[in-house]
């Protein structure tokens, strides 16, 4: 069976919406929307589009994630308190083992690709 190119088209993925988990919250009551487009056969690589409104929550990564900010801005702070502001057009990776926080300023939308061992 041949494999085909999979186009990523907003509105065509499986959607999941809801609040950030209460135990992770640091500020606000942010709502998230994830539109999932692809999972590989080994179920360790995923991609999609994620968005949230204003709020701040704890991060603890077991996976490696590539992110591209489609719209908006956020502040990512590591466990040592070093902060990075990411805005529309920024691309970055968050490595497995990263601990810290994510703060959405207003609203943000990102494309993500996740690899997990």
Automatic annotation (TrEMBL):
Domain (S)-ureidoglycine aminohydrolase cupin span(s) in chain numbering: 41-112
InterPro entries (UniProt xref): RmlC-like_jellyroll, RmlC_Cupin_sf, UGlyAH_Cupin_dom
Highest taxon above the source species: Bacteria
Pfam families membership: Cupin_3
Protein name: (S)-ureidoglycine aminohydrolase cupin domain-containing protein
Organism listed in the record: Microbulbifer aestuariivivens
Lineage of producing organism: Bacteria, Pseudomonadati, Pseudomonadota, Gammaproteobacteria, Cellvibrionales
